[in-house]
Amino acid sequence: MSTEAVAKRLVAMCRHGQFEEAQHELYAKDAVSIEPESMANGPLGNVKGLDAILEKGKRFKDSVKEMHGLEVSEPLVAGNWFSVVMTMDVTMKDYGRVTMTEICVYHVKDDKITSEQFFYDAGG
Fold first, then answer.
1. Buried-most residue among 33, 107, 110, 124 (CB within 10 A)?
2. What CATH number did the domain enclosing 35 receive?
C-alpha cells in the first residue's frame, strides 16, 4: 500500500470515528506517538509501541464527555510522509467544551505508519 493509500485510508477511518480500528490496521507494532514538548511527559504524552498508542487513545476517549463534531482534512503527501489537519469539537469531562485543532504528521514505512506527531497549542 502506497503512502497515499495509507493516508486516504486513515482519513476515511478517522472521519467515521474509527481511530482504534485504524491503529490496528495501519500502524506498525513499534510505531511512536509524539506530542508537543510541553505535553510530552503528561498522561497523553509520548509513547512507543502500538499497545501504548492504543492505551493513550483509550485515555483520551475516556476524558471526553461528548463529541460534537470532527473534521479531518484531505491528506497532503510528500514521499513517505503525510499530514492532515484534525479539528474536534468536544466536551471534556474536566474542563468543558473546547475546539481542538492540530496538524498531524505521519511517516509510512513498509505500508505501515511508523510515527505520528501532533502539533497544537496546549492549553488554548
1. 33
2. 3.10.450.50
Q: Which domain holds residue 74?
A: 3-119
CA distance 77 to 86: 15
Closest CA to 108 of 80, 87, 78: 80
Looking at the DSSP assignment, which residues form a beta bridge with residue 53?
none
Query: Around Cβ 37, how many Cβ atoms within 10 Å?
Result: 10
The answer to whether 91 touches 119, Cβ cutoff 8 Å, is no
pLDDT digits (tens, 9 = 90+) for 18-37: 999 999 999 999 999 999 98
Q: How far apart are CA 107 and CA 114, in angstroms?
A: 6
